[in-house]
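User: Okay, second chain of the day. Same drill as before: sequence in, structure tokens out.
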Amino acid sequence: MTIITISGTPGSGKSTVAEILKEKIGIKYIYSGEIFRKQAEKYEMTLEEFGKYCEENSEVDKELDKKQVEILKRGNVILEGRLAGWLAYKNKIDAFKVFLDAEVDVRTKRIMKRENGDFEKRKREMIKRENSEKTRYKNYYDIDISDKSIYDMVIDTGKKKPDEIVKEIISNMS
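Assistant: Same drill. Structure tokens below.
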């Protein structure tokens, strides 16, 4: 049974890498961020506003995280999510855990490609979002998401192409 978690910072290339990985190894890919985004839309809030709301309303995160643990336990999946690796680790689920990161300006440019907007505004939004998540995860689960020691691989995606990253992951899994 194959279980891979792809975690990392906003704009680090998680979705792109997970999509290519899905094609290469042929297992299901689930993006937990999409669920969070849909919840934000349902509440008619921006991601930033919804993140702040979640700081005061832990049940939203906890419900999403419970769903992710259920997905991981079923296996044969690539689960992409900020906490996916930590959820596998904390729940003793045997998963290959990958963390992707890149320098903040690189990530901001990638987000702008996807969502447009002003560079400085997008950068501020991204940093606020990261800080909100860091606060929530520490408060709810006593997880320091800046601690990368639980991951099997930590990859700087700033100067690498997605295909290179996927090859690196696959070669380290075996």
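The radius of gyration is 15 Å.

User: Thanks, on to the next one.
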